[in-house]
Amino acid sequence: MKHTKNCLKNQLAWVNQFLDYFSKHPNYCRKCNGSGELVYYENPGDQGMPGVMEFADPCECLESGICPRCGRNDSLHECADGTYLCYVCGWDEGTKEVAPPMYECSCHEEYEWNCQQQEDEEDWYNYMQETQELRNG
Question: Would you kindly state where each structural domain of the chain is located, as residue ranges?
Answer without folding.
Answer: 25-44+53-98, 105-137
